[in-house]
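Deviations from the work plan: none for this task. Representative record:
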Amino acid sequence: MASIFSKIISGEIPSYKIAETDEFLAFLDINPNAKGHTLCIPKKEVNKIFELDEKTYLDLMSFSRKVALAIEKAIPCKRVGISVIGLEVPHVHVHLIPLNSMEDARFVNKESMTPEEFQNTVKAIKSYL
Ligand code: AMP
């Protein structure tokens, strides 16, 4: 069965898209640790990050870096953190999280955002890409 992220890629499920290439997609996490929390995924559906072939792994990191630099410009934060977990969705994804404190990295305190806030966040990040 296609992962929820494959359904986002195909457009079956909506998302707040930040960036897209033939191979990768970046979109806002729907239950963010902090405003601007973004997921970068390969379109190829692979469960665990270190199962990716080396080229796709390195290209995913390069794609994530570009998105992270835009997030850092668009969202007030001390830095952008990077996490790979994957316990909930078995489709490789890199979490890019604007950090102001260690709490933002803990996946415990979640930020509540309206659809309008999500849309404005997309616009702000995209303006730096
Ligand atoms: P994990 O697999 O533990 O790294 O977490 C999966 C992440 O995907 C969580 O932060 C969720 O909030 C996020 N997520 C799940 N479904 C969606 C969705 N439809 N759109 C955006 N983010 C999602």
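The pocket of adenosine monophosphate is lined by residues 4, 13, 15, 29-31, 39, 85-89 (CB under 6 Å).
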